[in-house]
Structure prediction request, 151 residues.
Amino acid sequence: MKHRPLLLALTFTILAVATTTTNAKADGSHRLSFSAGVIRHGDPGSTDFLLGGEYEYRFFPTLGAGLLGQYIFSTPSETLIGFPVFLHPLAGDWVVYGAPLLSFKSDGNHVGARLGTRAPLPFGVLTLTPELAVDFIGGYRNYLFGLALGF
Prediction:
């Protein structure tokens, strides 16, 4: 349990090395981002800091799929793993996505879902991306507000 942040960091480092292109607007392209933010838990009504990462493979200009992982610095700590499907309604960078989630905590594991959106702001090869999402886990709603740095 103590090594989850290290495992997440290693996983996303490997994904970064495997990424061969940074242009997410074409078919068959990759996108990798690292994020920080806060999550407002519906139970017990607390707000905690989180760090995470996300990978997307874009099959078509309007559709992608990937992997996300986040570590929440709560008591007890929580690790989220998700498998998002990304919809790019305008075939650009704006994204609406949904993901089944696996939540791992020392006091129990849960299955849930996430719905979210984000609008990247390009800065050369990098993007700065504000993100809003809501998680439905264990009968509660958790609200995520984050900022990601993408490649």
Observations:
- The chain is about 10% helix and 60% strand.
- The two ends are 29 Å apart (CA to CA).
